Every structure is written in structure tokens, then in C-alpha cells.
Amino acid sequence: MKTILSKTAVAALAVAFASEAAATEWNVSVWGKRRAFTEHVERLAELVSEKTNGEFTMNISYGGLSKNRENLDGISIGAFEMAQFCAGYHRDKNPTITVLELPFLGVNTLAEEVAVSHAVYGHPAVQADLARWNAKLLMTSPMPQYNIVGTGDARDELGEFDGMRVRATGGIGKAFEAVGGVPTSVTATEAYNAMESGVVDTVAFAQHAHLAFRTIDIADWWTENLNPGTVNCPVVVNTDAYDALSDSEREALDSSVDEAIAHYLENYGELLTRWDGILEEKGVERVTLSDDELAQFRAIAADPIREQWINDMSAQGIPAQELYDLVQITLAAQR
After folding, report:
1. What pTM was estimated for this model as a whole?
2. Alpha-carbon distance 160 to 21, whole Å?
3. What distance in Å separates the CA atoms of residue 108 and residue 115, rounded to the nearest whole number?
4. 187-216: per-residue pLDDT in tens?
5. How far apart are CA 243 and CA 22, in angstroms?
6. Which residues are CB-neighbours of 41 under 8 A, at least 6 positions away?
7. Which spans in the chain are helix H?
8. CA distance 128 to 317
9. DSSP code of 163?
10. What pLDDT digit, counting tens, does each position of 258-313 carry?
């Protein structure tokens, strides 16, 4: 009997150890704090755990694993398995996806932003671009068009942007530069201090970021309709970690992306419906630029910056025109 019990106990222990060894745990590097911008990552982790009965879990770290500008580097060396980053933080490392940060692309909704982003992510040149960093593109972090908050007198004419120090990255920064602004690419987490100390006069963000990084708390005004563009922020996974997943784990991950994005869109939509109340509560003036001012902004910034981007990227061997056309074709199909 003792022998039987002993063998049974050993077998039970073996099963327990095997189950423990089979469990997969990923570290995920994001930054700031949990907010609308990270809700799809949070939901993805929940779905994957549910679908695998807790055998595949994700530990989401807000700044504990890496600085936001270094997340792609961390992915490349396998310091963590998943990360979020923004293309404008290091344009030279991910030149192909900067097509999505060109000013005045014509994207009007978050659903359209998802469609164009995922179409571009699926292009072979883009996948090869990110493969240099051992990164596989998983999903986007769709954001609405950026607008600026500022201190002091409101700026509702392009002439007032001349010399304006603005926190803006990527194509948005280029757009402001084209009308005389002075863009600086301080990170999102540094934006409040930069604005408070007077390093910048204005900050360009989507609504959730103005709220999460508290720039709205010290703002005197907000542009309602400037809409110069947005920043593209993918979620990527380390290719080796992805390839090491079992078939069932990989299926759990891949099949959860659409639902995670749907959750993100619903959550962000709720934020947008509350935005007017937030502005009123904080006493922030709403600034509307005239149609003539906006048309002038587009004429100065949109076409020249796009053509320059296409020329520069083409010179690097990137199918720039093809990527830009893909965005426009996808927009037309989405509508």
C-alpha cells in the first residue's frame, strides 16, 4: 500500500510540476498609468488568461520595465515579450509606419484609424521594417485627431503659431513647424512639467492624454477643430516569444485582438462623450479656428510634408507611395 501511495504521490507531483512548467507568463511594457490608451492591452490580457484557463498570463508594467522611448529596443533583445510604443518617438527605427503620422491624412474616426493602421501593419515592407527589431506587429492603439491646449491668450489664427513652442512629435510636429511653430518631442510623461515650467507654450495630445498626463489641469484653452493628425502607437510582441507559444496559446492571443480593440473603442467613446463636461469643469476655453485658417494650414503643411516624406522614404528603398496609397484606398473602402 505504501508503495502504491508513494507512486501515486510521485505521479501527482509530476503532473503538478508539468503543469507549472507549461504555464506561460509574459511581461508587457507600457507607461504612464492605466488609461483609455491602454485599455485594449488590459482587455487582451484578460481574454488570453480566460481562454487558456490561466495558463497564459500577462504582467502589465506601467514604466517598471523600460522607458517609453526604449520599448522597441527592449523588445529587440527580449527584455520583455510585449510592448507599446509610438512611431514618432524614434522615426528612424520604424520609418514605414510614420506614413500613419502624416498630417491631414483625412482619417475621421477611431474605426478608420484602426482600419488604416492594420492595413499598413500587414504590408510586407512594414513587417520587414519591424522584423529588424525582432518585433511582430499585433495591434494598434487608435487615437483621435490631436488638438492643443495652451496657457495665456488663446491662439486661433495661424499667425499666432509663429514662434509657439509646442510639444508635438512626428508629422504633427512637422505641421506646426511649417507654420512657424517650434516643436519639441518631450515624452508624454514630461509634458505637464514642460508646460508648467514654460518650456513649451502648448501641448498637442489626444483627449485621453490631456486628461491622463494632467495638461488639461493647467490649460487656459483648447483647440476644438485644429485636427492636424495623430500619432501611431502599435503594440508589438517579441517574435521569438510569439513563435515559442503553443498552438492553443497563439490562437488565444491572435483571436483576442479584435475583441480587445472593440473594448478600446467603446471605452474611448465614453471618454469623448464626457469631454465637453471636463472642459467646462476645469474652466478651459474652447477655441475654434475658421475654415479659412484651417484651409491655409492644410495648404502649407499637408501636401509639402507628404511629398517630402515620400521622396525621403523612397530614397531609402521604402515603397512610400504605395504605403500612402494603401492608406487612402483603405479609407475609401472603410467608408
Report:
1. 0.84
2. 62
3. 12
4. 889 999 999 999 999 999 999 999 999 999
5. 15
6. 28, 30, 60, 82, 84, 235, 260
7. 2-22, 39-51, 71-76, 110-121, 124-131, 170-178, 191-197, 207-212, 239-244, 247-254, 257-282, 291-315, 320-334
8. 12
9. T
10. 999 999 999 999 998 999 999 999 999 999 999 999 999 999 999 999 999 999 99
